[in-house]
Design brief:
Pfam families: p450. Keywords: Heme, Iron, Metal-binding, Monooxygenase, Oxidoreductase. It contains 16 helices and twelve strands. It has 410 residues and is an alpha+beta fold. It has a single domain, classed as Cytochrome p450 (Orthogonal Bundle), CATH 1.10.630. Strands 1-2-10-7-3 form a five-stranded mixed beta sheet, with helices on both faces. It has a three-stranded antiparallel beta sheet with strand order 6-12-11. A two-stranded antiparallel sheet has the order 4-5. Strand 8 and strand 9 form a beta hairpin. Bound molecules: protoporphyrin IX containing FE. Protoporphyrin IX containing FE binds next to helix 12 and helix 16.
């Protein structure tokens, strides 16, 4: 497990309204979020960060174009600097019109790829993974993170980009290294930053090579689509393509891993919910939405005010940073009845787990079908949870498990 960096606790208390490295927070952050939210939907920390905990306030900021990335100073260490002096931003960190342009091209390529056709792949892969784990473990314990939650999204991404089988394991490793480095750099240890940056450089290079091959010999994968996709005479440049594919890999891997892990932990600890789900497989899509709300993989979304704006009566000045606490908003009692309970039959809607507005997750259909395949196959098994408090990975933006030990009985 990655060690958390040694930050001065006094500094953390000035910067954030909670201590992300407190083991109690890591195990269950929702009571701390509730305490912050009780003071109002918006809190300003002593160092001037705006923390937004209310669902309505988070939704309003996500829809408001006065919040974005501006000059990008807050996220500049995620930009790609070319040897020719060019700078390419991943489009998740870009504002309109740059964001609009790249997002339109990516959406078109995703649509052409017909993600829904990947459902059969997800179902096949998850069954293979379960069979392999069963054969290896016999009556012994299985770590569901290692056996299913990690490899399934990895295999889906490799299928999406048609990565040659011999490179697939390295690809997964690199996506993981980047995902672990998604926390703000001031919260990361220097080795984590170095690993993230070198993983990104390796992926840019490798994707560049794959794109060259697909230009010469196009396939039906997403890279081939991105190489050729055009919108109003516009195309992605080679650097944009490398940065965009690397973003897709890093944004899609750990998030899906953690939706499966967090969701299965919640389910296995609540036999009555599992029985409800087992009674009708058509309930799985709704169940996955509730898992996303109950313990969202992405706990926070950041923005910077690019113009003076208001959030729930507070005036925010240009350049000030806003932290949208999705984990807190997802448990807001103003929106959710009994928010700390997992209720798989909860009415759909208003889920912020994939974001909202112009940056709404472009991979949501793929993430949903992948998680649905995993939850469906795993729910059908008789799984015994071997600990109700498995170790967590100490990241603050991405919430996930380091392990999920279970035993398959029957
Ligand atoms: C359970 C899995 C996933 C979760 C919880 C998730 C969550 C999110 C969230 C919260 C955002 C909004 C970020 C913001 O507003 O700043 C986002 C954006 C994004 N996601 Fe996902 N995501 C998941 C899976 C995926 C997958 C599988 C892919 C790609 C294959 C992907 C690619 C992206 C991209 C490219 C963006 C940026 C969109 C934009 O800026 O317009 N995500 N995701």
């Amino acid at each position: 497990m990655t060690e958390a960096p040694m930050l001065d606790p006094g500094l953390i208390a000035q910067l954030l309204p909670f201590d992300p490295f407190d083991p109690a927070f890591l195990a269950d952050p929702y009571p701390s979020y509730a305490q912050v939210r009780e003071k109002g939907p918006v809190t300003r920390t002593p160092l001037g960060l705006w923390a937004v905990t209310g669902h309505e306030a988070c939704s309003a900021v996500l829809r408001d174009q006065r919040f974005g990335w501006g000059d990008g100073a807050a996220v500049a260490d995620h930009f790609r600097h070319g040897a020719d002096g060019s700078v390419v931003r991943p489009f998740i960190f870009a504002d309109p019109p740059e964001h609009t342009r790249i997002r339109a091209l990516v959406s078109k390529a995703f649509a052409a790829r017909q993600v829904d056709r990947m459902r059969a792949t997800a179902e096949r892969v998850v069954h293979e993974l379960i069979e392999t784990a069963r054969a290896e473990a016999g009556d012994g314990p299985i770590d569901l993170m290692r056996a299913v939650a990690h490899p399934l999204p990895g295999r889906m991404q490799n299928a999406l980009l048609d990565v040659p089988a011999e490179h697939a394991a390295r690809f997964d490793e690199l996506s993981g290294d980047i995902a672990r480095g998604l926390d703000p750099s001031f919260l990361l240890a220097p080795e984590e930053i170095a690993k993230r940056d070198s993983a990104r450089a390796e992926l840019y290079h490798y994707i560049g090579e794959l794109a060259e091959r697909r230009r010469a010999d196009p396939g039906t994968d997403l890279i081939s689509e991105l190489v050729s996709v055009e919108e109003g005479g516009d195309k992605l440049t080679p650097h944009e393509l490398e940065v965009t594919c690397t973003l897709l890999l890093s944004a899609g891997y750990a998030t899906t891993v953690n939706l499966i892990g967090n969701g299965m932990l919640a389910l296995l600890g609540r036999p009555e919910q599992r029985d409800w789900l087992r009674a009708d497989p058509d309930r799985v899509p709704a169940a996955v939405e509730e898992m996303l709300r109950f313990d969202p993989p992405v706990q926070m979304i950041s923005r910077v005010a690019v113009a003076e704006a208001e959030i729930a009566g507070h005036t925010v000045q240009p350049g000030e940073q806003v932290m949208l606490m999705i984990g807190a908003a997802s448990h807001d009692p103003a929106v959710y009845d009994d928010p700390d309970a997992l209720k798989l039959d909860r009415p759909a809607g208003r889920n912020l787990g994939f974001g909202l507005g112009i940056h709404f997750c472009v991979g949501a259909p793929l993430a949903r079908l992948t998680a649905q395949a995993a939850v469906s196959a795993l729910t059908a098994l008789d799984l015994e949870l071997l600990t109700e408090t498995p170790a967590r990975v100490p990241n603050i933006i991405m919430r996930g498990l380091a392990e999920l030990p279970v035993r398959i009985s029957g």
